[in-house]
Amino acid sequence: MQRIGLRFCRMVGCLLILIGGPSVQALAQPYNTARPWTYWWWMGSAVNEKDITHQLEQFAKAGLGGVHIIPIYGAKGYEQQFIPFLSDRWLAVFSHTVREGKRLGLGVDLTTGTGWPFGGPNVTPEIAAKQWKVENGKLTTTLTKQQVKRAAPGGAGLVVDYFSSEAMQRYLQRFDSTVNQLPDKPRAVYNDSYEAYGANWTTNFLAEFQKRRGYDLNSQLPALLDTTGSEISVRVHQDYHQTLSELLHDGFTATWTNWSRQRGYQSRNQAHGSPGNLIDLYALADIPETESFGSSRFPIPGLRVDENYEVDRFGTPNPLAMKFASSAAHLTGKKLVSSETGTWLADHFKVSLAQIKPQIDELFTSGINHVFYHGTTYSPQVASWPGWLFYASTNYGPSSHSWPHLPLLNQYVERCQSRLQNSQPDNDMLVYFPMHDLWAKPAKSSGGTHQLEVHHVDRWLLQLPFGRLCEQLQKQGFAVDFISDALLKRLTVGRNGVLQSGKATYRVIVVPASTFMPETTLQILSTLAKQGARIIFEKAMPQQVPGYQNWQGRTNELRQLGRSLEKMKNVAVGKDVATALAQSGARRESWAERGLSFIRKKHGDTTQYFVANLSNQFTEDWIALSTAGQSVTSYNPLTGETTPLATRSGKAGQLDVWLRLLPGQSCFLNVVPQQVEQAGRLIQPPSRRPLPEAGAVTLSSPWQIQFGRGRPNVTTTATMPALTSWTTLGDSAAYFSGTARYTTTFDLPANVDLTRSFTLDLGDVREVAEVRLNGQPLGTAWCLPYLVTIPASQLKKQGNRLEVDVTNLSANYMRLYDRQHPEWKRFYDINIVDIRYRPFDASRWEPVPSGLLGPVRMKW
């Protein structure tokens, strides 16, 4: 490992993660959380020790850090090999997995059940999911009768009552007598997103409501059933949802989390979809987990999205939804924030690495630092291609066309997550989430509840002033976290009015335009303001308390508190939130308005930005950093290279830095308080910005193409006068999935300086390109933009030979294979479906463009 000066490490936040070297995480524990982990579906749990070891060794070699086992429905024809969940044989193969994981440095997580949500054969009607109904003028209890979805053998049964602590404790007893008795245990247990449809009640709901809200819900039954939105109806519905939220918090989340910790597990929880305050539910977990489902519509040139993906039906990822999980982690001091990543990016056999990277970059800028691919499927070695596949995933496994190059993505993720996991949040403001305003609106989810899902944030989050304000703040370049009524209680006020929650610090609290706020919450804000905290209320003070009991008296108390708060110098009320933020000292990264996404963090005395260009507005320019410092370095997680950047003094004492970041690219900016010393040598930042590109030439000579490894076997060789998809070369080529070599020769203009480095722009690549120049490897381009650097003196004036090996998707071969071998689709339950959830049929697909499409340009 290259020796790096300790002062340099401290200043630039370096984690000693070098190409090919072990990470700090890997040295500190038996598994590596900086590397991406993966969902690992056990179909029918038809697994065996030999194949488990084989696949884990493949995962470790590819650069994965761990697996998350989810027992699921099985494959037809393998019924005799199905292993019932939690049987003695199942526990034996699970123990083998954990032991092999330790040997290979892979962590192992486990769903506390099969499929989703929690439930199974030990769930009796007494502890099963409930809903309310009206009988003889009174609220009574009935079963939802929901069964576990996608259950594995031994896991079928009723869904458990998530609102009952007693029900959850009885459900978990099944694991106390099985998994908890093993010497080899998982790192963490997991709960999938809340999908207990129609569940809106529990057996003792009325008693809990009376205790928590102070009145008998049956006494206000007409208001509960009222759909006109009358004032009393709104208040009763707020009380109903508040009670449901608290019961979910106490009955499921706290019970399950405490059970996990007592048995030595961490808990990973996808709280979204819940009829409760997501921030509080995420905050209970050791590892809060969000979800990235579908593809975002980034305007990155060349980025493709599947035209068959139904946005209206499934929604798209949204950074604001992701921030509920990361905010909870920041406020409660959790090191890891995970994400189900890459679910349904495109149809099966059509997802490229270039589509995955921007989605991961979006997660990183939203505070996520522990990626779980969604995912890989256990597949026995005897299963012919494409092996066993899960119906809804992006295939990251060994049968995927991406597998040979997946280590490149894994290395990129590891380099990023190493830095993100070992730094502290540096967001300036907390935005209060007005849960009670949402509960005042008609519920649209099943069972008449507000289920806060990540798929369609436009249906709840973006409709609130909270959502509109957060979108505006994000675009303006303010760094924010969200906070709930409950988590406000964690805040303390330090010097200069700095708000603290553990190691996280903030400069201001922003309350979006809100109608309802508990008087207890405004009292907390008043106390913080008296201690010097800066608070901004958008438009006006909240004027109403939520809930029915004594609401007139509590509203008077709220308004009196509000009038007192408005008189404080460190409290602002008005429409111009941005101006108030500037006056409060909140930092603004103005360059975010040019389409650059970022997260700002601290590592020692270094301020660290992760910046991703997920738009098409910026290429290069001076940008003004809000953070003071004397020098800035750029770290490229694709290459592992650190480069000093040109800086200058900007306006109002800001530090300007020259940044070149093309659409699709990302980097870390490390801002240090003084010039950087490396191995005893002072690194001076460049005195001026890099020179612009002086010229470019398009390689217009004919290309020779020769097909190599792939399916079906193609022996065609051809000369292309101009670059085009190889699918135009005949029927065999139109079905080919694999690698083809493109070769050409070229000369350079006579006046080109060969002592400088060059950039090779490959243009449109479908999908991964391994490049060699004059017999020397230049690297592999696998993401947008498809660029490789040509070192100085590697070019000649004449007779340069360029070879580009391009690997495409497997979609074209699947067009043929699905026609010839439809029997490969042999899975129970939902089997294999397309991205619209229709029966999968690739035989009707048109050929997908493949190969080097160019234009290929040499730039200097």
UniProtKB/TrEMBL annotation:
<dbReference type="InterPro" id="IPR008979">
    <property type="entry name" value="Galactose-bd-like_sf"/>
</dbReference>
<protein>
    <recommendedName>
        <fullName>Glycoside hydrolase family 2 sugar binding protein</fullName>
    </recommendedName>
</protein>
<dbReference type="Pfam" id="PF17132">
    <property type="entry name" value="Glyco_hydro_106"/>
</dbReference>
<keyword id="KW-0732">Signal</keyword>
<feature type="signal peptide">
    <location>
        <begin position="1"/>
        <end position="28"/>
    </location>
</feature>
<dbReference type="InterPro" id="IPR053161">
    <property type="entry name" value="Ulvan_degrading_GH"/>
</dbReference>
